[in-house]
Amino acid sequence: MNLLLACALLAPVQPTHNLYVGTYNSPTSEGIYRLTFDSATGALGEPALAAKMTNPSFLAIHPDGKKLYAVGEVGESGKRKGGAVAAFDLSPKGELKAINDQSTVGGGPCHITLNPEGTAVLVANYGGGSVVSYRVGPDGSLGEPASFIQHKGASVNKQRQEAPHAHSINTDPSGTFVYAADLGLDQVLIYKLDKATGALSPA
Predict the structure, then answer these.
(1) Could you tell me the pTM of the whole model?
(2) Least buried of 2, 99, 114, 182, by fewest C-beta within 10 Å?
(3) CA distance 28 to 42
(4) How many CB atoms lie within 10 A of CB 62?
C-alpha cells in the first residue's frame, strides 16, 4: 500500500489541459472551440474549431469526463420546435465527435447541467421560459425529452419580466432536487428528479 501511494505521489502531473469554449456564430465563429491551458504558466493556446454548432452558448462535461453536452441558443424554427441540445464524445486527445441531438422544446436555451450521477441532462430555456430534462443513455446519447415544464407568470419590471425567463438550472449535491432560477418571475422553482428516467416533477 505504501509503495502504491509513493508511486501515485511521484507520478507527473499533467500541466496541459483542454478547455472548451461555446460561442455565438459570426463570420469568425462556427461553434465549439478547443484550446489548451498550461496550468504551470497560465498560458492559453490558440483556439481551434472542435465542433460546428449554432450558438453553443453553454457547455457541460459529463461527470465521467468522457462526454460533452451543449445547448444551441436558437429560437423557434421550421426545422424543429425550440432550440437544440447536443451530445458529443470526448476523446482522450480532446477531440469531439457528435453522438446525437434533441430539441429543447422551448426557445432560447441558455444553461445546461447534469446530475452528479450523469444519468440526466437538464436545460433552462430563457426565451421559452421553461425547463426540459433528458435521460442519458449508456453511450452518452440524449433520449427524447423526459419532461418539459412551462413556467407561468410575470414580475414587476415590465421591460424584462413580462414573461418567464428561466436562466439557470442546477441540482443539489445529492442530485435529488433541481433548482431553476427564473429571471422573469423573480423565483427559484424547485423540482424533484427521477434519476432513472430523467423526469422532473414539482417538489
Answers:
(1) 0.90
(2) 2
(3) 25
(4) 18
DSSP state of 12: P
φ and ψ at 134, to 5 degrees? -140, 145
Q: Are 87 and 101 in contact (CB under 8 A)?
A: yes
From CA 23, how far away is CA 1, in angstroms rounded?
47
Q: Containing H/E element for 127?
A: none
Give me the torsion for CA of 159, 162, 163, 168, rounded to 10°: 30
User: In this structure, are residues 134 and 126 in contact, taking their beta carbons and an 8 Å threshold?
Assistant: no
**What are 60's strand-pairing partners?**
69
> Which domains does the chain carry?
17-202 (2.130.10.10)
The helix/strand/coil state of 148 is strand
pLDDT tens profile 30-82: 999 999 999 999 999 999 999 999 999 999 999 999 999 999 987 554 456 68
Tens digits of per-residue pLDDT, 88-129?
Answer: 999 988 999 999 999 999 999 999 999 999 999 999 999 999
Alpha carbon distance 200, 146 (integer Å): 8
